[in-house]
Structures are given as structure tokens and as C-alpha cells.
């Protein structure tokens, strides 16, 4: 998987269906469309109005679900989840949706994001007698909901969401109702669609296209939807706060055919490439992008610069993980198995290599070396986002500052470390303008904390990074 090469992963994607006799099958296809958001595990929970059924497992969607399993998941509603495993967080019990059963009924939860006050809440819950079965933040929400059992379920869920902080898009399903929530700043994408009389919810709009559903709108920050056989009801669990959608959704995570905040991802990435060409021009012969998320920006760079775009790098889509890599030489070979330079395109050429981001720098160094070994005369690296200098606490594995190459190095030092003939990043203003096209100011646009260090939420002293969980 190229995600291993690039060093950026996100935790998950969620998909839900209400009011369709083949809800499990639709959720299966919806999760297929979201597979890029999580490739370590997947699960589906269905309801037939009387009981909740679950199937989940490690691996890709095709590996987890058989036809027999999908046929056993009878029900008119379902919630599904794809995920990346986090450090110390890869056990079967952590694969979502999480399903809890009690005397008052079942509860299934699927979550995209990360809670910055999860550890504090876990300490509080355990101090009050709760026994947590997983290391997932999601379980905290289930306990908060159940502890408010004196309230109607809708109020209990609202109260639970009012207590958690950070980034979260949630699907919560009981035997007879589905609840949909987005955090008060809308850090993670979540949309509502329909197919006939059926309702669907997805992390990305591309999944609606895959299953044949119609996109309706995005779930608003702080909004709580209740979907049942009675229809859809919208309420708020939080006062409106200016949305700060994660900018890395545009840069890297979302599929190019998805729309975020009414803006197409592919078009946004092309504008990033065009802005990058204006900010960092160079004399070169060809432009190439690192597959797949950088292709759109590379096309934009080529269009703005007048330098022809070529497929100088090819991704091998049939290579799985290579677990045994005992030497540096074999690790280098593993990269070559997943990504290849096209010698006939780059040999003797001055190449502009466009990538979406640099995290640790190891991948960029290997790709630059690969291009030069294929005969490239020069390799000029252009990054369609600003330097990632700060860790993310909202569900992206940009780890800690010590592992981020841009945290303590200048652009010139990074350039030397990756072996490029030149290196330039898109500016923060350039990224903001490429996404919002002047509609919103930088202070009121997307979350750019990994670039600027300006976090949209409080970061608690005991905040645990999502990829450092014990």
C-alpha cells in the first residue's frame, strides 16, 4: 500500500444506511469506496428492528466479508467502518463498529477522528467503576451514553457528545434508530445522502456515487441527526462554531472525486499545483506526480508552468505488505516494488517531482534516488502543501515533532537530506487560497494546525496522540 511509503495515514472512514432491505450490501460497497481511508480492518453492524448483528475482521474489505457473512447480516439499517490500526491499538477488540449489549438494548458506534480529552475521560470513568474493554476512544462515548441512562437516549447522546473534545464524526445505532453527529468545528468530513426512501451517511461523497445514492448535504458542525422509520430529524448538541475542516483532507486523504464543503477535491488540488508553479517556478523538461494523491497537483503545476506532464512514476497496485525487510537494501527494494520510475520518460530530463507532502522525508529521498537511477538529469521537488512542522491530535499519524523532518530543519536542510536539486513548499496562504478561493480568511478556513501550530481546540496536558496509545 502506498500509504506505507508516504508515511501519512488516517484512522478511518464510516458509512451508514437506514431504510433499505439490502443495507449490509450497500454498506459493503460504500466501504469499498472509502477503502483508502483505512486498510487494516473493517466491520459492519446491522439491525432488523429487533437485534443487532455484527461482522468484522482484520484486512481489506474483500478479506473481511464473504458473501455468506453479508447474507447473514439481515436488516434494513447498518453502520460500517474501515480503519487504520494505531500503535498498541491494533487488536480485534478495537475494530469498529464497537457493539455493546445491555438489558436496555444494543448500541453500535463507529467513529472517525480522535478525542483530545479521551485519557482524562477514561481516568474519570475508571475512577467511577467503569471497566474499559478496548483502548479505543470510541468506547469512552459508549460509557458516557450509558451513564446518562436516566435521560432519553437522544439526550444521553447529546450530553455525551457535549463532554468530548477533539475531532469526531460519529454513527451511533440502536435496534430502531440511528444517530449521526459531527464535532462542533467539523474537523472531519461527513455527508448525508439518499436513495429513494433510504438514507445514507458517508465520510466522503464518492461513496454515494458508487452505490447510486444522491448527495443531499454535509452534516453541520455540532449537529445531531436522528434517522428512523419516521424520517430524519435534525437538532444541535453544540452551539455553532466556525468550521475548521482538516486541510489535509484536500491535500491528501480524500478521493479526488469527492466534494468537501462544496468544493471538488481534484479541482482544489489542481489549484494547489497552479499556485505552487507560480510560487516556485523552475526550468525543467517534464512534470510528474507521485501516485495517486499528487497527480491532480502535478497536472495543475504543468498547466500553469507550460512544462508537459508525464507519467514518470508508476504505482504497482498488486503489491501487498512486505513484512520481512532485514536490511536497508531490501527496504529500498520494497519501495521499488510499489513504485517505479519510467526510464523512457525521465532519462536525460530535468524532472519536476510534485508530491502532496513530506512527513519524515524517507520516502522523498527514495523517490528522488529512484528517478536519478532511472537517468533523470535533475530532480526538482515541489510540495503542494506547507511544511508539516507540528503533530496532529485529531486522527492523523503525523506522530510527534521529533519524527517530522520539517519540525527542526530548514527547507535547504531538507533539500540536502532528500537529495533534490531544489525543493519548495506551497505557502500557507497559497494552500488556503487554493482551497477556499478567497471565500474565507485563513483564520476562519480549514484546520492548518500541522502547518502553523494553531490548534482549533484546546490540547489537554495528558492528550495522547492517536498513534501513541498504550
Automatic annotation (TrEMBL):
It is an enzyme of class 2 (transferase). It catalyses: 5-phospho-beta-D-ribosylamine + L-glutamate + diphosphate = 5-phospho-alpha-D-ribose 1-diphosphate + L-glutamine + H2O. NCBIfam families: purF. The gene is purF. It comes from the Bacteria. This is Amidophosphoribosyltransferase. Its EC number is 2.4.2.14. Pathway: Purine metabolism; IMP biosynthesis via de novo pathway; N(1)-(5-phospho-D-ribosyl)glycinamide from 5-phospho-alpha-D-ribose 1-diphosphate: step 1/2. Transmembrane segments: none annotated. The active site is at 12 (nucleophile). Signal peptide: none annotated. Mg(2+) binds at residues 293, 355-356. Residues 12-230 form the Glutamine amidotransferase type-2 domain. Binds 1 Mg(2+) ion per subunit. In the C-terminal section; belongs to the purine/pyrimidine phosphoribosyltransferase family. Keywords: 4Fe-4S, Glutamine amidotransferase, Glycosyltransferase, Iron, Iron-sulfur, Magnesium, Metal-binding, Purine biosynthesis, Transferase. Catalyzes the formation of phosphoribosylamine from phosphoribosylpyrophosphate (PRPP) and glutamine. The lineage of its organism: Bacteria, Bacillati, Bacillota, Bacilli, Bacillales. Its cofactor is Mg(2+); [4Fe-4S] cluster. One of its GO terms (biological process) is purine nucleobase biosynthetic process. PROSITE patterns: GATASE_TYPE_2. SUPFAM superfamilies: N-terminal nucleophile aminohydrolases (Ntn hydrolases) (SSF56235), PRTase-like (SSF53271). [4Fe-4S] cluster binds at residues 246, 392, 447, 450. GO terms for molecular function: 4 iron, 4 sulfur cluster binding; amidophosphoribosyltransferase activity; magnesium ion binding.
